[in-house]
From TrEMBL:
Coiled-coil portions: none
Gene3D superfamilies: NAD(P)-binding Rossmann-like Domain, P-loop containing nucleotide triphosphate hydrolases
Stretches the record annotates as Disordered: 1-28
Protein name per the record: EBNA-1 nuclear protein
Pfam families: DUF1611, DUF1611_N
Top-level taxon of origin: Bacteria
D-glutamate N-acetyltransferase-like N-terminal domain location: 78-154
Domain D-glutamate N-acetyltransferase-like C-terminal, residue spans: 159-356
Length: 365
């Protein structure tokens, strides 16, 4: 079955596919894009719906509703809609806004995607299992003349070179997975731009790709090409601006350290921001595996980053304090600031102004 006419990859909307120009971040005309219906399906907790939640938080103007199955108790705070209601209210694309172990679609999800297509919406997904691999979904897209967008479909890439390149880059790194690296990076972009500084968010995960309109799904890249992917997404820039690169995983996570290391080498970061959730009991998905000591975590990330940029600096710590009270959150931030002589803020509840102050102090912006 030829699906090339209506199946798109994470970078198929981009006019530039070489390292000589930045990928544009607008959505393609006359195709998938907002307004969005966010699909939560049977999501059992907030992490399972993290893609939908990220879009609802950072691009609320694009999101008109959510679709939940009857047993779903998770919400992103949008109006519940069935597929016909969503289309009648102007939804152009349904985003499969859930994530699960293995990234597979169950039978309910497949049925719902087909229903969304039959109701006139394009469908975009960040799951590892591609929409284009499922015959009923492809058939529904073809009969309705609609597009499928697989965010976890990387472009053709080269291996990293490690050669210095123009421009400045900041990379968020983590003590664990899912501690707020994307939120921190987007908050930094917002604050940089508020100050009139040239800065661009560079997405490396499915949620970030939906928010930015393009990027590289790093966890779908063959290992040898991860550093090359980071080079591709942050090519040379001559405007004295910053690429703010969304980090992934953690050097200390036994499952995902490889992708973190590749990003550190390929980004050639001038600046690092360490992201951390202070009250997490263990590494995500690994009971009994403690989180690393923060000082050891900082030193390990600096050591890895120095391979391609010996002058790299840590400019701040971003905390996810969503499970702490306001007073406790402020106390934890103050303690880290005293211990590390670095600004420490929760990007969502406190902003990142003092972290950007440190960037400007260190780099003369």
């Amino acid at each position: 079955m030829d699906t090339s006419a209506n199946v798109m990859s994470a970078t198929s909307s981009e006019a530039a596919t070489s390292s000589s120009a930045h990928p544009p971040v607008q959505h393609p005309p006359n195709g998938w894009g907002p307004p969005y219906l966010l699909y939560l399906g049977n999501a059992h907790d907030e992490l399972a719906a993290k893609t939908a939640r990220g879009l609802a938080h950072w691009r609320p103007q694009w999101c008109i509703g959510q679709h939940r199955r009857s047993g779903c108790r998770t919400t992103v705070g949008l109006a519940d809609m069935d597929f016909a209601q969503a289309r009648a209210n102007g939804a152009n694309t349904m985003i499969v806004g859930v994530a699960n172990a293995g990234g597979l679609m169950d039978a309910d999800t497949v049925d719902d995607i087909v229903a969304a297509l039959d109701n006139g919406m394009h469908v975009a997904s960040g799951l590892h299992q591609r929409l284009s691999s499922c015959a009923p979904i492809v058939a529904a897209a073809n009969r309705n003349g609609l597009q499928l967008f697989d965010a976890r479909h990387p472009p053709l890439l080269q291996v990293g070179s490690g050669r210095p390149r123009a421009g400045r880059r900041l990379l968020t790194v983590g003590s664990d997975c899912s501690v707020g690296k994307m939120y921190a990076t987007l908050a930094l972009e917002q604050e940089f731009r508020r100050r009139g500084l040239a800065a661009d968010f560079r997405a490396t995960g499915q949620t970030g790709i939906f928010i930015a309109g393009g990027g590289v799904p790093i966890d779908a890249v063959v290992a040898d090409f991860i550093s090359g992917a980071a080079e591709w997404i942050s090519p040379p820039r001559e405007d004295d601006g910053w690429d703010l690169i969304e980090g992934q995983g953690s050097l200390f996570h036994p499952s995902y350290a490889g992708v973190s290391l590749g990003l550190l080498h390929g980004s050639q970061p001038d600046a690092l921001v360490l992201c951390h959730e202070p009250n997490r009991a263990h590494m995500r998905g690994l009971p009994g595996q403690p989180l690393p000591d923060l000082r050891a975590c900082l030193e390990a990330n600096l050591a890895a980053a120095r391979l391609t940029n010996p002058a790299v600096q840590v400019v701040g710590v971003a905390l996810n304090t969503s499970r702490l009270g306001a007073d406790d959150a402020r106390d934890v931030c103050r303690a880290i600031e005293v211990a590390f002589d670095l600004p420490c803020q929760d990007p969502v509840s406190m902003g990142v102004s003092r972290i950007v102050d440190r960037v400007q102090s260190c780099f003369g912006d």
